[in-house]
Write a structure and sequence with these properties.
By secondary structure, the chain is of the alpha+beta class. 37% of the residues lie in helices and 18% in strands. The longest helix has 15 residues.
């Protein structure tokens, strides 16, 4: 204890006064305790063991500071000293600048002395400089140090010039001129014995000038002698030694100790016979991996010999599989004290797993060097942040708070006594509340800019990150000062977005466009109209006095009425026209009018309308032509994909119907001609189970494929398979189910219209429950309740809900939990029984439960993924891997493991055979399949310049670029790239070089991926701010990319207006409660929300609402009779008496799916996995809708869909 001490947190320094440190006179002796003469340096060392500010430290400073310390002259003060720069010193002597500093210390030159000032005047400019951000290097690597050159008008050497240029910025004129003038004289390329194409074997030994040297030693020899590439000496050495020292590295190295399932280590001290010579195993391993290809005969021969058994071993691990390694603890091994890090790495080398030495080390050290990771880590600073660099006493030493927080999180569970104890001990010192630029009720103004710390202007959003990244503490003077200096500029109180925001260019109900680049004086500085508009939109309400005053002031300079090409008629967006010697579309032209500020009533506007109205504009028909509607108003369905010829043009029935609905009147000649010629080819009546002889009773029970269903569900089968009335399949269905479904209510379910509904939303039809001691599904229970006469609003119904809703009902997740998702990649599900939460279960069951019940962010999802991923998930074998394409049509001969030879499609092997047999990637079985079928089943596709991974980016077709010495557009380079295949070196090299220049990832208006854009929503923003579509097009025109400040700013500003969450079950005004659709009277005018609008307008407004939402239900109650008309033949039971279908069941879910079919669907992103193909009995359960709804509705929806398609095509 007399010899040891605890090192202080802040050591005492004899010459340290606050933040100032003076120079110590080490050799000066003073009288110390007991009358002894002691050097000041020794006293300083003694004080280093004391805390700064302690009584011992303070007393010593009082006694010895004046004698032992002085304020030394500093030649450069706060500048950088060029230590090695040589100068002509006084008395014609040469010294370095560092020598001057040493003289100041030796001669005790004080900073305030005349000598100090004099030397600074003479030498400060030569010796001192402000260090550049990126120093100038005269030569890339090697310099002829002693060669004479002229630099800065004086004779110098390359070495001196190089040193002086280190003071200049790399991109300065001084640097560029110096390289130009001196580079050829001073710089050279060092001799490279192997050239550019070969690799150097550093350890190979050769004889050179009478000495045995390693080939790696040639480089320093060349450096010392300045042997250049291309000179005679270099050529001689290359000729003599290249064959011994150089080799071509293998593309896939031969790894002696790699097996199909593992990577083993090679013994260091074991010798084996290799090609007739005794060699160390590690040398054999190194030689093979550096020199030999993995598929060579040499590699195969080495692996098949006894060498692999003698040389390769699985290294001993001290910790078990589920434990973490403790690197910090010390242990004693064979008399030496070593760290666990050394034990885990160095000391376990050459010790094989399961050997006696390994077992012995595990028993000795696993308790000290291993620990179990906590299930729920202890968070030291929950709700705050850590003072990272502050040091505290911890486990007998001094550690930073960041280290303590990480240590606690890695070892202690949240809520345990140890965690609570750590919090109590360290939170006071280590934890703090982080400072924020804006108050909790304020938001950051991304479009405001500030200057900070003498740097260029940055957006307030970027400046806010300064607070986060630097962990400034709340309540400190620094936090208060920064908030005071920048808060008013960068922060604002957001308005209530349920109240309309101030739109600068809106007058009454009329919207005008914004002339965004005009400068006006606003809030104390010149700003563009765009900035004014954005600021008003975020900070002021529409009907506020501030908004009115701003409009009065800025409307005239900032706002204008855009030229309306069609003046109320419809714009044919996709028509191509030539205008002003430019080929464009009508839509692009309309948008260009905004960019070019073409105003309504101007000469340019009138001239454009005169030329373009006829090709670009059309009048919407009063009674649209519907191809499959007969003259008696009966409505048929359309054969979507049937190809037809009409007016000498080839198209499909669907596309022709879309055109007729948008352009032609019902009584027009073209409409009647189309019906006369094409109704027989394009139209059919959908099969009805009851035909014309009865009405469908939706809830009557029946059996289909040995499964109990309601009769109404059978309509999905007919609809999903487009079964036509009069077909053999339709007749068979009618014959089989007419009695059950069409002869009146079933005796088994009297009063079906008043049935007890267990679930308000999602129902798990096939969940198992027990009722009166009998096991059954929730679907069967639904029928049993009817049979028992249990109806809604009864006490028995409430009892049933209480007893069974937990098992039968759930709320479908918005972002379902995927058991086998790891990062961005989805894996396949194993058909395997596992023990989880104490019960035997199946991976498929767990997978489907998580997908239908839990959100991705739920703790239960994360915990289950962590626990079961390794047991339930695997990387499924793929014939072609990730880089090549599978030929779906190819038939090959496949030899099974048992020798059976059968013909199979490549897609069948990939999607069915591999999935059923659960063949994993990189397995021997997978390798055999790939070897058999790769050449037949796989093919490469042309190089696509702007495809990266699974994402396709937009090609900037007209962007010019200098590449390989020629100026071309990105479009030209993309065409050239397509001449090569995607996996070729040429393709990969081209993409690596020019991807960032030519490929563009567009900025989305909406922040969240599950949001949709209301394209026609009017607002004022940017130059194209009449609608959200204009904003979107402006982003594209301005090349605003996803992720940059501008994109985030625009998202923040307009997402409230332009984006809405896509409903899970979309509202349709004329959709009945059983999921069927009535005809919508599109042009009937009604009063809705205080406005006179058409039923079609109402339906469009409701498209963003949920089917069971208040707005949707209210509109249907109010407008049903006016807007909705039953289809020909009627449909009994409408008006609320039919049961609402479960909205959670996906359109793409097969009911007949087996558990063995589960893996492929997940890899394709589906909710339920499916490896097989649809059988002849495949049918779909639909999301409350089916395809028998009015094609008038379908056709009228075509125009917005066509515009969306057009936009995608354009973009």
């Amino acid at each position: 204890s007399d010899c040891c001490y605890m090192f202080p947190t802040n050591a005492c320094g004899l010459c340290k006064q606050g933040d100032t440190l003076q120079t110590l006179l080490w050799a000066t002796e003073v009288e110390y305790e007991g009358g002894k003469n002691v050097a000041c340096g020794i006293i300083d060392n003694i004080l280093n063991a004391e805390e700064d500010g302690s009584p011992t430290c303070s007393s010593a400073k009082d006694d010895y500071f004046d004698s032992c310390c002085f304020n030394k002259c500093s030649l450069c003060d706060s500048g950088q000293l060029a230590w090695d720069f040589v100068i002509d010193y006084y008395d014609d002597t040469s010294k370095t600048c560092g020598d001057i500093e040493a003289i100041f210390a030796a001669d005790e030159v004080e900073s305030n002395s005349k000598e100090c000032s004099s030397v600074k005047i003479d030498y400060q400019d030569l010796c001192c400089f402000t260090p550049p951000v990126s120093p100038c290097d005269l030569c890339p690597e090697y310099v002829h140090w002693d060669d004479a050159v002229e630099f800065d008008g004086e004779e110098s050497t390359c070495k001196e010039a190089t040193a002086m240029l280190k003071r200049e910025e790399e991109f300065s004129d001084t640097c560029s001129k110096a390289r130009e003038n001196m580079g050829e004289k001073c710089c050279y390329e060092l001799c490279n014995i192997c050239g550019e194409e070969l690799s150097l074997d550093w350890d190979a030994v050769v004889e050179y000038e009478g000495n045995r040297i390693a080939c790696g030693e040639f480089k320093p020899i060349f450096g010392r002698n300045e042997i250049e590439e291309g000179d005679e000496t270099c050529d001689e050495v290359q000729t003599a030694y290249r064959d011994f020292c150089c080799y071509t590295p293998p593309s896939v190295p031969c790894n002696l100790c790699q097996t199909e399932t593992d990577f083993l280590d090679a013994y260091l001290g074991v010798e084996v016979d290799f090609w007739g010579s005794a060699m160390n195993c590690s040398d054999v391993y190194d030689y093979l991996i550096r020199r030999i290809e993995s598929d060579s005969d040499t590699c195969s021969s080495a692996k098949e010999s006894s060498i692999i058994g003698d040389c390769c071993y699985k290294k001993c691990t001290i910790c078990s599989r589920n434990q973490l390694q403790d690197m910090e603890q010390n242990v004693e091994l064979e008399g030496d004290v070593i760290s666990c890090l050394q034990l885990h790495t160095v000391r376990t080398s050459n010790i094989a797993v399961n050997s006696s030495d390994c077992v012995s080390m595990q028993s000795q050290f696993s308790n000290s060097c291993c620990y179990d990771a906590p299930e729920t880590p202890c968070v030291l600073c929950a709700g705050g942040t850590t003072r990272k660099d502050l040091e505290v006493d911890f486990n007998g030493g001094t550690e930073t708070c960041e280290f303590v927080a990480n240590f606690v999180a890695n070892r202690e569970n949240n809520g345990t006594e140890e965690c609570t104890s750590s919090m109590d001990e360290f939170q006071e010192f280590c934890c703090m509340d982080k400072c924020s630029l804006c108050k909790e009720t304020e938001q950051v103004d991304w479009d405001a800019y500030v200057e900070f710390d003498s740097k260029e202007e940055m957006s307030c959003g970027s400046f806010d990150w300064y607070f986060t990244s630097n962990s400034i503490e709340k309540g400190t003077d620094q936090c208060t000062d920064l908030q005071g200096d920048f808060g008013e500029r960068c922060c604002y109180e957001p308005i209530d977005y349920s109240i309309p925001s101030c739109s600068l260019c809106k007058k009454g109900e009329a919207w005008y466009d914004l002339n965004g680049n005009v400068l006006v004086y606003f809030e104390g500085s010149n700003k563009t109209c765009t900035e004014v508009s954005n600021s008003l939109f975020r900070k002021a309400e529409d009907e506020s006095g501030f908004c009115d005053a701003a409009r009065t002031e800025y409307f005239t300079p900032c706002c204008f009425e855009k030229c309306d090409l069609c003046q109320g008629a419809q714009l044919d967006a996709n028509v191509e026209v030539a205008y002003n010697e430019t080929a464009t579309t009508c839509l692009e032209l309309g948008l260009q009018f905004v960019t070019d500020i073409i105003m309504e009533g101007s000469e340019d506007c009138n001239a454009a309308r005169e030329i373009l109205w006829e090709p670009c504009c059309y009048i919407t028909p009063t009674e649209p032509c519907v191809l499959c509607q007969s003259n008696t108003a009966s409505q048929g369905d359309i054969r979507d994909d049937v190809s037809i010829t009409f007016y000498d043009s080839t198209t499909t029935c669907f596309d022709l119907n879309s055109f007729l609905v948008s352009r032609e009147e019902q009584v027009g000649f073209m409409c009647q001609a189309a019906k006369s010629e094409l109704q027989e080819s394009c139209c059919y009546q959908e099969c009805s189970i009851c035909g014309s002889g009865g009405n469908l009773y939706w809830d009557n029970p029946t059996t289909f494929n040995d499964i109990s269903f309601a009769c109404g569900e059978l309509t999905w089968i007919l609809s999903g398979n487009s079964v036509e009335e009069g077909s053999e399949e339709c007749s068979q269905m009618q014959e089989n189910y007419f009695a059950d479904c069409c002869n009146g209510p079933s005796e088994l379910i009297p009063n079906a219209g008043n049935k007890c509904e267990l679930c308000p939303s999602g129902k798990d039809w096939y969940a198992q429950v027990i009722d009166d001691g009998k096991p059954m599904t929730c679907l069967e229970l639904d029928t049993v309740l009817l049979q028992k006469g249990i109806f809604k609003d009864s006490a028995e119904c409430e009892d049933a809900k209480r007893d069974f809703s937990n098992q039968c009902c759930y709320t479908p997740p918005e972002r379902p939990c995927n058991l086998c998702q790891l990062g961005q990649k989805s894996y396949s599900v194993l058909d395997q029984t596992v023990v989880y939460n104490g019960a035997d279960t199946n991976c498929y069951g767990i997978y489907n439960y998580l997908w239908t019940r839990l959100e991705t962010e739920d703790d239960a999802c994360l915990v289950t993924q962590n626990d079961l991923f390794d047991e339930c998930c695997y990387s499924k074998c793929s014939i072609c891997g990730e880089d090549y394409q599978l030929d779906q049509e190819m038939i090959v001969t496949h030899e099974g493991d048992d020798g059976t030879v059968i013909s199979m499609g490549c897609s069948e092997i990939e999607n069915s055979y591999i999935g059923i047999n659960q063949i994993t990637q990189a397995s021997e079985q997978c390798a055999r399949i790939q070897q058999q079928h790769w050449s037949s089943c796989c093919y490469d596709i042309p190089c696509e310049l702007c495809v990266s991974g699974d994402q396709e980016y937009e090609l900037l077709v007209d962007e010019p670029l200098t590449y390989m010495g020629a100026v071309r557009t990105c479009g030209d380079l993309a065409v050239l790239a397509e001449r090569d295949f995607s996996q070729s070196d040429v393709c990969k090299s081209t993409k690596n070089d020019i991807f960032d220049y030519c490929c563009f990832k567009e900025c989305n208006l909406c922040k969240e991926p599950d949001q949709a854009i209301n394209w026609n929503r009017p607002l004022t923003y940017e130059g194209l701010a009449s609608t959200c579509l204009d904003v979107y097009m402006n982003l594209r025109t301005s090349r605003v990319q996803a992720g940059d400040d501008r994109c985030q700013s625009i998202q923040f500003t307009v997402s409230h207006e332009c984006c809405y969450k896509m409903p899970t079950n979309q509202c349709s005004l004329c959709q009945s409660s059983n999921g069927t659709f009535l005809n919508t009277n599109w042009n009937i005018e009604v009063n809705y929300q205080g406005e006179v609008v058409t039923c079609g307008d109402v339906n469009a407004k409701l498209s963003s609402e949920e089917l069971d939402g208040i707005l949707c239900l209210s509109a249907r109650d109010d407008l049903w009779n006016q807007c909705c008309t039953p289809q020909q033949g009627g449909n009994t039971g409408l008006g609320g008496i039919l049961p609402q279908l479960a909205p959670e069941v996906s359109d793409s879910t097969e009911l007949g799916q087996s558990s063995s079919d589960l893996d492929t669907g997940r890899e394709n992103g589906g909710g339920y996995a499916n490896d097989g193909e649809f059988a002849s009995t495949t049918f779909f359960r639909r999301n409350g809708s089916h395809s028998s709804h009015s094609y008038l509705y379908t056709a009228l929806m075509v125009l917005p869909m066509s515009i969306a398609t057009l936009l995608i095509t354009l973009l």
